[in-house]
Amino acid sequence: MSLTPYVYWAQRHHELYLRVELSDVQNPDITIADNVLHFKAQGHGAKGVNTYEFSLEFFEPVNNKFVQKLTQRQVGITVRKCKKDWWSRLTKQERKPVFVAPDFDRWLDESDAEMELRKKEEERITKIRTESKLREDPFLYLKRGYLFMYNLVQFLGFSWIFVNMTVRLFIFGQDSFYDTFNTMADMMYFCQILAFLEIVNPLIGWVRTAVKPALIQVLGRNFILFVIFGQLNEMQTKGVVFFVFYLWSSIEIIRYPFYMLACIDTDWKLLTWIRYTIWIPLYPLGTLAEAVSVIQAMPIFNETGIFSIRVFPFEFTISFSVFLNVYLVLTLFGVAINFRHMYKQRRRRLGSKKRKML
């Protein structure tokens, strides 16, 4: 009478796992023919060192080829199913053989197996995407590191401005409006000079965004900062400086963290919603504050003659305020371009999905 070893089994949608409890097995005789697995080997089992054998007719068709793995304590057999499916039992016969039991170390129910399969598929897709990105751009992580640090520095700079202006407003009230430039200008100069990289980055292809909106915003802000405020001492003590600086920093303390998270492929839904919504009130207010500063600067440029152009031989002078009027008109076009750009981005990221009617 032949001896039968203990056999433990588990499954996935595409494979079967069999574990034969025999130790010190050498050259086992294992075959699969006509959907029946035949096993015969000499080893140490429940009845000591003997020859053990068994046959199993599988519940559904399997591939004749299999993978075996011998260890000192057991024999592992991996069999592929011909059809990816979840079996209700291992063998064709309804009554389970007495020597067969579930392998609880590997046992999963169908829902757990589906989750495992889905996780593996997601990992495979992620790996493929990562490898394809690396093949396309070997300097991807270097670029991401640079962009992350750039956005971090800008976030810290504008946060410093925003927090300091807020604290001063609570302490000094309206009086804080009139020395905003003297206390905040150095940091604002630093941040706005650094912002020129937002034009360079898309030009060299390190950021996938349109160059025109960045060009309009950076040049427009720097014109206000360096020409309107920086060149006129009279403008530096006006309250409009507070509103310009506060509105700029209010936008940027949201925008730069959003870009930082994008560098590490992280999407925080609340921050995304705020980033693509807060511009709706703040951009018009910022544009209005900038326009007010230009209008307030016109009489000062007329009186001082700064940047005026003397035309020879007609002996008359063109005041810089004439160019400021042209600038205000061009600002309307620039604002329209940027608003259209932001609106498109908002629709793409937050656009409502049409619900299907059942």
UniProtKB/TrEMBL annotation:
Quick check: keyword RNA-binding in the entry?
no
Q: What is its EC number?
A: 4.2.1.134
GO CC terms in record: endoplasmic reticulum membrane
Report the CDD domains cross-referenced here.
Answer: p23_hB-ind1_like (cd06465)
Enumerate the transmembrane spans. 145-167, 187-207, 214-233, 239-264, 276-298, 318-339
Entry annotated with the keyword Endoplasmic reticulum: yes
Q: Where in the cell?
A: Endoplasmic reticulum membrane
What is the recorded name of this protein? Answer: Very-long-chain (3R)-3-hydroxyacyl-CoA dehydratase
Q: Which organism is it from?
A: Hymenochirus boettgeri (Congo dwarf clawed frog)
What is its membrane topology? Multi-pass membrane protein
Concerning PROSITE patterns, the annotation shows: CS
